[in-house]
Amino acid sequence: MGKVLMKGNEAIGEAAIKAGCFNYFAYPITPQSEVAEYLSRRMPEVGGVFLQGESEVAVGYMLFGAAGCGARVFTTSSSPGISLMSEALSYISSAQLPAVFVNIVRGGPGLGGILPSQADYFQATKGGGHGDYRLLVLAPDGVQEAVEMVMMAFPLAEKYRNPVMILGDGLIGQMMEPVEFPDHLISEPSNKDDWATSGMDTRNRKDRNLVKSLFLNAELLEEHNRFLKAKYDRMKQEEIRYESYNTDGDYKVLIVSYGIISRVCRTAIDMFKTEGLEVGMIRPQTLFPFPENAIKEAVSKSGCKAAISIELSMGQMVEDVERSVQGVCPVHWYGKAGGDVPTPEEIMGVVKPLSK
Amino acid sequence: MAKTFKKTAALSDQHTHYCPGCTHGVIHRLVAEVIDELDVRGRAVGIAPVGCAVLAYNYFTFDFQEAAHGRAPAVATGIKRVRPDLIVFTYQGDGDLASIGMGEIIHSANRGEKFTSIFVNNTVYGMTGGQMAPTTLSDQRTTTSPSGRDVADVGMPIKVAELISALETPAYIARQSAIKPKYIVRAKKAIKKAFQYQLENRCFSLVEIVSTCPTNWGMTPIEAVKWTEESMHAYYPLGEIKTPE
Amino acid sequence: MQSEVMFAGFGGQGILLIGDIFAHAAMEEGREVAWIPSYGPEMRGGTAYCLVVTSDRPIGSPIIRNPMHLVAMNRPSLEKFAPMVKTNGVVVVNSSLIPIRADRSDVDELLVPANDIAKDLGTTKVANIVALGAFVARSKIVGFDILRQCVKAMFAAKEKLIPINLEALEQGKKVAEEA
Ligand SMILES: Cc1ncc(C[n+]2csc(CCOP(=O)(O)OP(=O)(O)O)c2C)c(N)n1
């Protein structure tokens, strides 16, 4: 299959199908309703399930049920909807079910706006629902990477039996870019019958399976939480992904930036180069686990005077950058949260003084 | 010469953002006229939904709150319980009231909360671009039911007024329409009754108003009126469904 | 080289569609492309616009305050966007509906009576395609042959509409060449 020009939202829908996910539940919300509109046509064509739930609260639990009985399943929503699903995310994490959630983030808090934003960083990486749980969070910077991450998300969710969240933004959802779909189906893991409520007859299972999250016994709950923690620690060992830009030579400032705004930073870095100023960038592709070591190493390079977190929020990822830098150099922040994406020139204006 | 028509004090001078042929503007006016006729503007509080009417507070000149999607009845409950002297109403679309907010509306109605709900049924999610709603008619095409609502798959459209009338507690439930003067006159009467019952401290009242959405139906305003009269009025009969004994 | 084109008009004028066709043409030529629409309820009744960025390198920032070129299909969009166009950019003005001018001496302003031409062809619905033809003939950002192919591909499901749209494209080109 060659390149096709597709809107991010539609490409995300198609990518899920290409990844072998034929079950989709959702509730409309701007700026991602096109995923539901697209899949309302496509799922019947491929014999899949499309259902518009009555609310995101309900949709969250539709995923719980579908994932619990062993189906590959996903949903898409935007910030206020993800808040409503956060309760289910807590239950799904505890019950250790693989499911994929896509958040096409819009401005907040409250109803906020519908323009691009990254203000759900904390919600995605630090919880949002109750209890000690973590989501594996992937952050694409364009339509092609959104497709690749959706396709990656299902096997990752199944590997860890944990929800995976894709954190996009309104611009990635709404814009069209050329995309190429790897055209192989990813097969389902065969061990789902070990835990899924797939019916005892399916594989002539002798023991019944339970999908649950209640542990009234203190010891058992402790053990359960330790088991979950070990899983999150394993993600930190095995799943960190990031991209470095202009970090081979020396540089004066390190930008840490992800998603759509990292592309603006890239343009700013190119423009700096023509002026003779070198600036490097680390772009986390996984927000949890976070590329702490890579950032620490990058700022430890001689000549690097400062790090700056550039994000479409009032300063969320910057806390993880500070944690990673561990005092090696000053950490700054620049961001906007109203929906207006800064231009390369604006970013240059903020970064330049840090190189002095 | 006597003045026969004047601006309603409860309505502001703002131009509405509604599309040509949409009936939200008409319904806003009816509510405003009733508020003025009952002389309760000073203690009226409206709750705006999430939907096309999310900015409704720009068009009224009295207190308003904005709710999360579907939660307007819970907000109204909170207000009315702590300030029973206020005249409180929710203004909600079909996605807001009958889908995501069905739980809230049913329980508010059943508790007999003493507020009024104005329920605008245009069969689609207007604001997000015309997706299927719980009230979308059988076989009606929307952006998430591209080959028409398949009732074998998603069930029949919900008759909200009848559904809520099945509860014992609510005081007054009616359905009217906003597409032509003869219907609009009756719609206004129903809205006025609903507010009057609230003033008499009777239990919950709801007026469902059959409305249009030419933009998302892909029709001209005139075609939309015709379709509403032929298709919607047939499935959603107009009249009073529940009145206090 | 990177170039950015703003297509603007009111909802229903087929603004997003000509942006789409143009973006396809650039993609077919092997260039990098990003098509960015205005979205949400503000589209209703107001101005609709989309921005198409094309480049021979991966596109960094898809957010552009000052586009290189503008295709304005109605008056509010000319008023809003003409001051933002970069020096030497092409500004196509749908003169059937816009009585004013860009009022800039540093851009290449091209008046195209797109609605009148389209009406003569049988329907004002193809006014957008007339403007697209004129713009591409003038700016030469993509080849005209590829553009024709992309128009055909866009209407593949409604084959009846192909001839009139191709004709609209040629009429636009003619205006650009004769101006
Ligand atoms: C939790 C949440 N989910 C989804 C949305 C997106 N949303 C905004 S309006 C709307 C539908 C409104 O439809 P309806 O109630 O029928 O009113 P109308 O727009 O037709 O007047 C939706 C789904 C939201 N704002 N919040």
Essential attributes:
heterotrimer, B: 245 residues, alpha/beta, Rossmann fold, 7-stranded mixed beta sheet, two-stranded antiparallel ribbon, globular, C: 179 residues, Pyruvate-ferredoxin Oxidoreductase, domain 3, 6-stranded mixed beta sheet, 6 helices, binds thiamine diphosphate
The CATH architecture of chain B can be named as 3-Layer(aba) Sandwich
In terms of DSSP E residues, the strand content of chain B is 15-25%
Mean pLDDT of chain B: 95
Q: Please outline the major beta sheet of chain C.
A: 6 strands, mixed
- CATH homology-level superfamily of chain C: Pyruvate-ferredoxin oxidoreductase, PFOR, domain III
Number of domains of chain B: 1
User: What value does the Rg of chain C take, in angstroms?
Assistant: 15 Å
Small ligands present: thiamine diphosphate
Write down the overall geometry of chain C.
globular
Could you name the CATH homologous superfamily of chain B? Thiamin diphosphate (ThDP)-binding fold, Pyr/PP domains
SS-derived structural category of chain B = alpha/beta
DSSP E strands of chain C, number: 6
In the sheet with the most strands of chain B, the strands line up as: 2-1-3-4-8-7-9
Total of helices of chain B: 9
Overall pLDDT score of chain C: 93
What is the CATH fold-level name of chain B?
Rossmann fold
Helical residues, percent of chain B: 25-40%
